[in-house]
# Entry
Amino acid sequence: MIIATNIALIIIALIILIYILERDLGLFLLSFIILLQYIWMFCSILVIENGIYINEQGRNGYFVYSGFILLLFYVTSLLSLIFYKKTFGTLFKKTPSFKFKIGELKDINIASILIGTILGIAYFNLFNSPIPLFSEEVTKFNFWEYAKYPFLKSIIGNVIAFAGFGAALLYRFKKRTSIFYLTLYIGYLVLMDQKFTGFLIAIYGILVALYFSSNVRVQFKLKWILNKYLITIVIALFCLVYYKYSVKQPFKYMGLTPLESVFYRAFGLQAHVFWGTTEHYIYNGTPNTWNLSELWKGMHVLMREFWPWSYEAYVSVTTRGVSWTNAYPSILLRIFPLPIALLVNMLLLSVVGFFQSLLATFIERRSFVLSIVFFQLLMWVSYAYTMAYFNKLIIPFILLFALSFFTFLINKTRKNESEN
# Structure
């Protein structure tokens, strides 16, 4: 009965997702990270509430109706994103096109140089460091502890999705350069030993760029899911992960086979924080904290609550930047009662909608450099929400303020020149 109930919730979530895909492919692409998080969490709850051992919490899961609570957040989030798209889309209709120019270099050329430079730096650092794909000790998770130039982490990271996005953005205008950059980008992901998430983020960036830079608005068709190329890519990624887990067997201590380990890693852990907060604050009726400051680093707050090991181990892990996954909207259930948590979620998503609309506007106006910048800002914003690291919103807002002030000065200068 538990399995059937959670499978039914997954089907409902997928039907809603397909409806959004068919009605508004652009909104789906811009919201991909958040929507993927929800679908992944539905699948994870199916595994958790069937009694799987939650390694991070040191206990077994059980049925606490968390799938129903997640569905409420899922639906209200989608309604909010649809509303904010219409609202901000209307607001930004008259936003002027802003393009950089340095001497004879036009905006598109500056963007091309920027992407090439970033990829060059990424490969330079990678080839001077232990390469995760060929190392038994170094993985994508601890790569920057062994990297030759660890200070580059804040610029490059493990995925550098904005490089893939930028390369795809050039496709309609510099096809050969775009294909060359995309090849380098995919090669970097492979060498970094990226698996499902890394490639999904890469595909996300590429599709956003291609969709909004096109003069024709493509309509989603259900048969795309059964495309032979997509199926081939999924099978190839699965085989790659299965091979790595056959060699390393990371969950052998739990008695899981390599095949079981793949599914446990993919689905068993994604929603354990949400399940835990649902159990504590709704199922067991633990009083809410009403402490808004917990949003600042919500992931750390929830990790501390469910951490089954020593406090020293917790400090060591969080200091090194290691964290769990998907602490949002879980943190809202800790702070507020469910009805208020849903309302706050709808209000907070206005920030996501704001950056989504700005990104779409800049791509459509062919402001290449700004499109790359705002794609990265949207990535940071989406990451801040999925991980409940709201302190990460500081940089996007500082850059947004700086850009607004810079634009104001330029417009004022142009106005004064025209008057004179």
